Each structure stands twice: as C-alpha cells, then as structure tokens.
Amino acid sequence: MNVLITDDHDIVRLGASIVIHEIMPGATIHQATDFGETIQMLSGSPYDLLLLDINMPGGNNIKMIDEVLAIQPTIKILVFSSYEESIYALRYLQAGASGFINKNSSKNDLKNAIL
Length: 115
Known about the structure:
Strand order of the largest sheet: 2-1-3-4-5
Radius of gyration: 13 Å
Distance between the termini: 12 Å
C-alpha cells in the first residue's frame, strides 16, 4: 500500500506513520507538509490512501478534495483534522472523502478509520 500523509505538523505525521506501520507493516509512507507539495506528489506517483489535514498552508478548503480526486480518482481520502467532526465531517464526505477523523481520536480509532 502506498500512503501519503499531509500535515503541517511534524509530530502528527510521525505519529500517523507509526500507527500505519503497525497495521500495515509493508506500507510505503510518504509525507507532505502543505497542499502544494501534496498535489505535486499526487501528480507524480499513485497512492492508495491520503491522510489529509484540511487546515494547513495552501489548503483549508473543501475544494482540496476535488483537486485530489481530479488527479487520482480512486484514491481513498481520510480527512484528519482538528475540526469538530459533527460540524465538518458530512461536508467532506459529500465532497468525496472516504472518511473523517478528529485528531483528538484514539490510536485505535485512527487504526479503524484507516482499515
């Protein structure tokens, strides 16, 4: 599995990488620090999963989902955000994300969302 983690916080990318390696030891994990870098990476390689922070440099807009899907229509997008799930999740799911998880969720919740 080829995974791209996009978040502007190093510690979040590191933690998500550890969780992904625990559940998918053979996964190849790449990281991006902003939305522009994400688009560049998606344009160059196929990915199976995008763990996407929606509040970061170059992003913070529901149109990010459209841009990602225009490049890789079959990618699974898991929105990983500090935004309140009850307020924002439905919007991103309707835009084409495969799932939404709050950054305050437990490690097991993240694992379940990825699987």
